[in-house]
C-alpha cells in the first residue's frame, strides 16, 4: 500500500537522522546489535553509559508514541519455540557477523562498505530462503 | 553531553522504527517472502535511512572530530572473512523465522507483548554465547 511506503520512507528518514546524530555528535556507528552485544559480553564496558542512553531512547520514544497514537500491530508469532530459536539465531549471528540491519545495512551501505553490502546480501538471502522453505516448501508458518 | 546526544539519536531511531512499521513482523516477513504476497515497504525504509546517513558520512569526512569529542570511526575493513558470511546467514535465518531484528525488538518492548520479551531473552543469550561459538568456529576451521 502506498501509505505504508510513504510512512516507511519517513520512518527510514528518522532512522537515518538518528544514525547521523550518533556519528556526527558522538563519533559512533549506530548498530543495534553491537550496542546491545557490547553490554552483554562486557566488550562495551568503557562506554556503557552512552549505550544505555541510546537504547533508552530507542525503547522510550516508541513507548510515548504508542501511548499517544496507539501501538503498532506486530503480528508476532505466539509459538515459543520459534521465538526462542529466532532470538538465539539473531543474537549469535549478529555478533559473529559483527552487525545487523542497522550497522551493516543502514550505516555500512551508506558509506559503501563492502562488508556491509555483503552481509546485507547474505542475511536477506538467508531470510528469504527460510521463509520460502518453511512457508511455501513445508507449509508451516 | 554524549549521553544526551546518544538519547536523542536512540530516540530518533526508535521513532523511525515505530513510524516505518518495521516493528510489524508481517511487514518484515512480507519483504522476505518473494514467492508470496511480497511487501516492498522495507526497501523504502532502507532507502529513506541510507540517504541522510550517506550525507552524514560526507560531512564526517570533512570534519576533524565529532561534536562531543573523540574521533570518527576508522574506514571500513576491506576483508570479508568467513565470520561475516556465517554470522549473516545465521542472523538471516532467525530474522526470517520471526521477523524481528535487534533494533525493532528494543523499539517494541513497550507495546509488542510478551513474545518480544521472550525473543529478547533468547537474543541476549545468543549474544552471550557468541564469543564461544566464534572460538569453536575458529578452532574447527581457521578463519584465514
Automatic annotation (TrEMBL), chain A:
The chain crosses the membrane at residues 6-25, 52-72, 78-97, 117-138. Keywords: Cell inner membrane, Cell membrane, Membrane, Transmembrane, Transmembrane helix, Transport. It is a multi-pass membrane protein. It holds the Pfam family Sulf_transp. GO terms for cellular component: plasma membrane. It comes from the Bacteria. It is found in: Cell inner membrane. The keyword Transferase does not apply. Signal peptide: none annotated. InterPro entries: Sulf_transp_TsuA/YedE (IPR007272). Its main location: membrane. The keyword DNA repair does not apply. Belongs to the TsuA/YedE (TC 9.B.102) family. This is Uncharacterized protein.
From TrEMBL, chain B:
It comes from the Bacteria. Keywords: Membrane, Transmembrane, Transmembrane helix. The chain crosses the membrane at residues 41-60, 80-105, 111-133. Pfam families: DUF6691. This is Sulphur transport domain-containing protein. It comes from Roseivivax lentus.
